[in-house]
Amino acid sequence: MTTQIFLYGQIGDQAAGLDAKTITDQVRSATGDLTVFINSTGGLIFDGLPIYEALRSYTGGQVIIQIDGFALSMASLIAMAGNRIVMASSAMMMIHRPWDSAFGNAADMRAKADQVEKIEEQLIAIYAARSGMTPANVAALMAAETWFTAEEALAAGLITEISEPMRAVALADVSGLGFRHPPVISKGQIMPLPAAAGRPPAASIAMNADQVREIRNLVDAHGLPATLATDIFRRNLSMEAARSAIMDALADQGDSSAGSHIAGMIMNGDTFDNPAFFGQSVTNLIYARMAGKVPEGAARELANMTLVDLAREMVARAGVRNAHRMRPDDVLAAASWSGPRSSRGTGGPWLGATAHNSVPGHHSTSDFPGLLLDAGQRYLKEMYQAAESGLKTVSRKRTARDFRTISALQLSGFGDLPSLPQGAEFTQGTFTERKESFAIATYGKMFHITRQAVVNDNLGAFSDVFRVMGRAAAETEAQLLAALLNSNPNMSDGQAVFSAAHNNIVTAGGPPSVAEMDKLRQLLRRQRDPDGVTVLNLRAAHLVVPSQLETVAGNLAIGTWSPTEPANANPFAGLVNVVVEPRLSSATQWYAFADPALAPVLEHAYLDGYEGPQIETRDGWNSLGQEYRVWLHFGAGFTGWDGAARNSGVAS
Question: How many Cα atoms sit within 13 Å of 526 on the Cβ side?
């Protein structure tokens, strides 16, 4: 029995299962001969060394290393553990001095240099023992960053044999990894295919690595079988022919809309080479993970990347050398920002006035924390909207430019339009501001996400907090609106909102029924314009009830009318919307509201451009990680009384 392990990718990549724990567990559980297939540009030393030691100590059978494409850097060292080391004639191997990154003072960096030198001595000893070369010769080859063809690796004693060239093995593009002397074949190519009867030479048919990746991503993103990509490569199709094959497969599935989307992606250049497109895809992926949803579109192509992987990619795109070899904690340090950020853009003080000029979602393409913040804001808003109070349905929404008092506009003398005899002059109507007013206030809380949570790819630490914060923002609004109804405050005329003076209260009432609803309907119909003459004739559109009256109110709102049973007639069926508010202090009182656009009674407002909860973040200072705070600019108040009526719910 033979066990197979594939080291295809970056050594240490947890999402791909290439970290030390995962691979060493596979080695320890293996039985019989163990074949390890390698196509890797290298990776983390402290993941690679344990993998090498586990393979070297394996006693269940022979360890056979098969180098299919690249065995570079740490991957070449792992290859040295094989009893047999077989290298495809089209593959490449590379050895070089180890790299690392350091932060801190001079003493910190000297200590790091000493550590790297000790590691280098260990690597030299491993290569020398395998090849038979002297340590000095190995050190010189590593210092020169030496690339070996299969023939050169065999001559140097680094492998034991050469196999036939591999078919269509994609090589990674190593041009951005900081290697000094990569050969041309290493810059995003496909292993050359041997010529055969009936097939043109490899140079005229092989796709490059980016094209292979694009075809695989397109096939995967639209749920097509992986065998389709394999068949495309087997048939040596051109990119144009490959796209046609994908479109045909989608047409066969009846997925015409997806086919159009793929064509658009190809024709419009929406690829990961576009920084804005890539950044949006990262945001969409993080949001999907937070919300527990399946990533859609291009985000699906990044689904196997961890948070650290995504941060590493953003750092690399910013031009940081050796980003792909940095430790996770160093990656996150390099990806952090030096100043505060808000969910509406970059820069500016927390809750500062200058934030008004920022552009929503405007983060640079290398700003990984900014993209994480955008995803968090999106999820926060979703949780907030799911928990919003129904009382906002009966309240008119307004926007305020600042925190000054908001007053309601009152129309006086505009009850009707008088007749104008020929040649008569228009009379002057008046607009005044009511004395009823309210103002916006700020509400908020802070929380902290540790760097360890990000390294562990624990998005639950984000989603749980944002879910709670979203509901907390909605709860803040709900409590303010409910408190207004519960308090029934006095208006500018000295009378309570719901009072006999305002002709909008039923003191001898009962629970929702046709008869009791009719009392409130008549009160609304008879409300008058501020001129005291014109009848407003308002229609009851919403019922607001405590949770104790939810069932009877629901029956009133949806009950049917039967012409054969006049006693059971329900003229309100389908004409009123029921709003249940469990925060109402009375278990019996309930309300009828007209459309707030016609006759507003309750009003709520947000600061201009800041509707709903907002997020701001900055680097943690007391502990490693990010500090976040969620805040809300919100206000509410009574600005009228003629658009609502209250039933006491009990007989007097």
Answer: 11
Residue 413 dihedral angles phi and psi, to the nearest 5°: 80, 10
Helices (runs of H) and strands (runs of E) counted in the chain: 18, 21
**Contact present, 615 and 373 (Cβ < 8 Å):** yes
- Helix pair angle (239-252, 256-268), 10° resolution: 160
- Do residues 191 and 90 make contact, with C-beta atoms less than 8 angstroms apart? yes
Q: What three-state secondary structure class fits 460?
A: helix
> Hey, is 408 helix, strand or coil?
strand
Q: Model pTM greater than 0.85?
A: no
Could you tell me if 308 and 454 are in contact, meaning their C-beta atoms sit under 8 angstroms apart?
yes
Q: Comparing C-alpha atoms, which of 338, 398, 390, 335 is closest to residue 367?
A: 335
Contact between residue 74 and residue 11 where contact means Cβ atoms under 8 Å apart: yes
Spatial distance between the Cα atoms of 478 and 579, rounded to a whole number of angstroms: 12
Beta strand 430-438 pairing with 92-95: unpaired
Say what angle helices 368-386 and 275-291 make with each other, to 10 degrees.
Answer: 40
Inform me whether the pLDDT recorded for 634 exceeds 60.
yes
Residue the block writes with tokens 């290398």:
366
Q: In angstroms, how far is CA 550 from the centroid of its own chain?
A: 37
Kindly report, residue by residue over 102-133, the tens digit of the pLDDT.
566 777 667 777 777 888 888 999 999 998 88
What would the mean pLDDT of 396-412 be, rounded to a whole number?
A: 78
Q: Quick one: tokens of 374?
A: 């955008």
User: In whole angstroms, what is the distance from residue 293 CA to residue 299 CA?
Assistant: 12
Which range has the top average pLDDT, 280-284, 336-340, 363-367, 543-547? 543-547
User: Rounded distance, CA 378 to CA 289, Å?
Assistant: 12
Whose structure tokens read 């402290």? 46
Report the 10 Å Cβ neighbour count for 191.
24
Q: Are strands 84-88 and 63-72 parallel, antiparallel or unpaired?
A: parallel
- Taking residue 351's Cβ as centre, other Cβ atoms within 10 Å add up to 16
Task: Tell me the CA distances in angstroms from 183 to 91, 193, 388, 597, one per residue in order.
Answer: 12, 18, 60, 70
Q: How confident is the model at residue 186 (pLDDT cuts 50, 70, 90)?
A: very low
Q: Say which amino acid occupies 40.
A: S
> How does DSSP assign 323-342, residue by residue?
GGGS-HHHHHHHHS-SS-EE
**Strand ranges of the sheet holding 505-506, from the earlier edge strand across to the other edge:** 505-506, 644-647, 590-593, 542-545, 577-580
Dist. CA 189–CA 387, nearest whole Å:
52
Note the pLDDT tens digit of each residue in 374-402: 888 888 888 888 888 999 999 999 988 88
CB 376 within 8 A of CB 615: yes
Question: Can you read off the two tokens belonging to residue 353?
Answer: 């006035």
Using the structure block, give the residue that is written with the tokens 């190995």. 138
Give the model's pLDDT for residue 356: 29
Longest dimension (CA), the chain: 116
Q: What does the block give as tokens for 54?
A: 């586990």
**For residue 391, what are the CA distances in angstroms to 17, 388, 413, 436?**
50, 9, 31, 19
Q: What is the DSSP letter of 528?
A: B
DSSP 3-state of 40: strand
